[in-house]
Amino acid sequence: MRQTLFQEKYPVYTLEVDKSETSFTSVDAIVDYFKEKIDAHPVVAFIGIFDHYKHTSSLKDGVISDDIKDAKNILFCFGKELPSPLVLSVRPRSIGVVELANSFVITFLEAPNPAANEAMESWALGVKNR
Length: 130
Known about the structure:
Blueprint: E1 2-6, E2 10-18, H1 27-40, E3 45-51, H2 52-58, E4 70-77, E5 93-99, E6 103-109, H3 114-125
Antiparallel strand pairs: 1-2, 2-6, 3-4, 4-5, 5-6
């Protein structure tokens, strides 16, 4: 798992999983795995799944890298407190799953809640060797 700054300002966690390192064979299967983790968590609320590939390919001027075969986001929220209106600016959470020719790339934006980051990192690492 790598931590980087995307566009020099967004803290992003990234995990690239070679297809030989996992039994998952599709973005949908990985998204279903994350949905199971979300549903099992006592605080997290599932929101939905966004088919980013389908959306972008449907746009007249949509551009998708030739390397990307599929791309979806699973959306959810860890929010158990609402101390200020500003909290909504960092919620909900999303995990992106992209299929490349020989790997899957899992990404998510760092959350202000360390427990949320730990959970998402653990879930992502669970894709390897499964």
